[in-house]
Specification:
Number of strands: 12
Radius of gyration: 19 Å
Bound molecules: NADP nicotinamide-adenine-dinucleotide phosphate
Distance between the termini: 27 Å
CATH topology of the largest domain: Rossmann fold
Shape: globular
CATH class of the largest domain: Alpha Beta
């Protein structure tokens, strides 16, 4: 029941109405008997206005998605070290008027992988794309057994600044990171020949942007023990994952990352654990409708 004491949490993004986060967090509040609700704010306001709204209305916590993960950074009071390194935040806690920004995407992805495939070798990992989510996954990688990360990204205007950020992450996290332009087919083929784990962190394969991040013929050439993972969860199986499954590779979609990053945000806000088994069951049920 909503009372005068009910705390308000939410997602600020655009578009946002498709989000599964209200289902996840409201189940968590019910599990833990926390008097709080999570709603969606589909917003196109300036980041400064969003920050002010959180403060003025006393919103207890916020998740951020497109287009706010990078642009909200200057409008919080404190940034966690991993949010600083990755350059993005996906979670804000309102601590008595002080806004604290963290990023749970990277740990969320690797925790999901660890749970789904605990024995999976990931020493040599390849990431396709270097946007906000990819950088969070890259920043956290060293804590989860990755030794060398090879990143492929389009050679566009953001290439030099991404190269700089990757160099900073490599030095700080003591990990080897190589960056190549997406159209360097030789580097792509050579790297894929020895990869343990291949992650699609581009938008390619989403319902709105269908397609493959790499040519399907290359997927067949990847070592058979290589895990093919996609950050995308809608659809649950992208064309990339379907091809990987049909060429007998283990696969992982982005649903686990969605749940685990939410669990970490929930814990950061409330100090309580989100029990994830019923959440996975509810999301599977929701996908059938
Ligand atoms: P983003 O910051 O916009 O980054 C998108 C990336 O995709 C960029 O590296 C971009 O390349 C690349 N890209 C787009 N079109 C491309 C093309 N035609 N060819 C090659 N590369 C292309 O988005 P994001 O927030 O990182 O999200 C990336 C994906 O992760 C999305 O599908 C999103 O739904 C998913 N995601 C999932 C979760 C989860 O919980 N499972 C969480 C966050 C994000 P450039 O850098 O060259 O522009």
């Amino acid at each position: 029941m909503i009372t005068g004491e009910t705390l308000l949490y939410g997602l600020v993004a655009h578009p946002a109405h498709h989000s599964l986060s209200p289902l996840i967090h409201n189940m968590g509040f019910d599990q833990q008997a926390i008097n709080a609700r999570y709603v969606v704010f589909d917003s196109q306001s300036q980041p400064a206005a969003v920050s002010q709204a959180i403060d003025t209305l006393g919103i207890a916590g916020i998740n951020l998605s497109m287009p706010y993960k990078q642009t909200m950074r200057p409008f919080v009071d404190t940034l966690s070290p991993s949010a600083q390194l990755s350059g993005a935040i996906n979670t804000i806690k309102n601590d008595n008027g002080r806004l604290i920004g963290i990023n749970t995407d990277g740990d969320g992805f690797w925790r999901a992988l660890q749970q789904a495939s605990p024995m999976q070798n990931r020493a040599q990992t390849v990431i396709l794309g270097a946007g906000g989510a990819a950088l969070a996954v890259i920043e956290a990688a060293a804590s989860y057994g990755v030794q060398t990360l090879t990143v492929f990204k389009r050679a566009n205007q953001t290439y030099p600044q991404v190269a700089k950020r990757l160099a900073k992450i490599a030095t700080t996290r003591h990990i080897t990171i190589n960056l190549y332009p997406f159209d360097d087919e030789v580097a792509l083929q050579q790297t894929l020949a020895t990869t343990d784990c291949l992650i699609n962190a581009t938008n390619l394969g989403m319902q709105a942007t269908p397609g493959f991040p790499i040519a399907p013929r290359l997927i067949a050439q990847i070592p058979s023990a290589c895990l093919c993972a996609d950050l995308i969860y809608a659809p649950r199986e992208t064309a990339f994952l379907k091809t990987a499954r049909l060429t007998n590779h283990p696969t992982l979609n982005g649903l686990g990352m969605l749940v685990e990053q939410a669990a970490l945000s929930f814990e950061f806000w409330t100090g309580k654990t989100l029990v994830t088994a019923p959440i996975y069951a509810a999301l599977t049920e929701e996908n059938k409708q």
